[in-house]
Amino acid sequence: MSETEAVVEKSEKPDKKSLVARLEEEGDVAADYLEALLDIADLDGDIDIDVENDRASLAIAGGALGHLVGDRGEVLDALQELTRLAVQTSLGERSRLMLDIDNFRSAKKDELSKLAHEVAEEVKSTGVSVKLRPMNAFERKVIHDTIQEIGLTSESEGEDPNRCVVVLAS
């Protein structure tokens, strides 16, 4: 292997430590942005920064923050996108960070995982594929990941905002 090939091969594999450092930097930029938003709105909240599944993850807890989630998480989704844009503007790279407020996404993830297990049992017992209600990208990912862990297959079908997960029979 030539020296040039070795350099190319080495640069194609991202260093795990540098990835974590980059994600921590994303988290810091996002936290600064969110702190400024909370200050402008005169809201209290503690921001926790973490790195999960190769993405920055931020959680805001405390205070009366339910209105920052919305009825079905639509305000939370918008805040997440604004925060991603702020990080992208600051760092020059697209961000995949996840934002949770008052454990909304955490509770939603548990609820969706339970639904995925129920649907998987139905598909296994009937041998018939099941199409779920339209879901946003976060919800679909939770369903797909859970179905995959169970050992079944799923796919998304349709266009947003009516994109659905279909759990496939073998």
Q: What is the global morphology? A: globular
Domain module tally:
2
**Count of alpha and pi helical runs:** 5
Helix/strand/pairing class, anyone?
alpha+beta
**Backbone CA Rg:** 19 Å
Instruction: Give me the oligomer status.
Output: single chain
Mean pLDDT comes to 90
Quickly describe the structure.
The protein is built from five helices and six strands; from the N terminus they run ααββαβαβαββ.
In words, what does this structure look like?
There is one protein chain. This protein is of the alpha+beta class and 170 residues long. The chain has two domains: 3-102, GMP Synthetase, Chain A, domain 3; 107-168, R3H-like domain (Ribosomal Protein S8, Chain: A, domain 1). It contains five helices and six strands, in the order ααββαβαβαββ. The chain has helices at residues 3-12, 16-40, 74-91, 104-126, 137-150; strands spanning 46-52, 55-61, 98-101, 130-134, 153-157, 164-168. It has a three-stranded mixed β-sheet with strand order 1-2-3, sandwiched between helices. The chain has a three-stranded antiparallel β-sheet with strand order 4-6-5, covered by helices on one side. Helix 2 packs across helix 3 and helix 4 (104-126) packs across helix 5. The longest helix is centred in the first third of the chain and has 25 residues, at 16-40. The N and C termini lie far apart (45 Å).
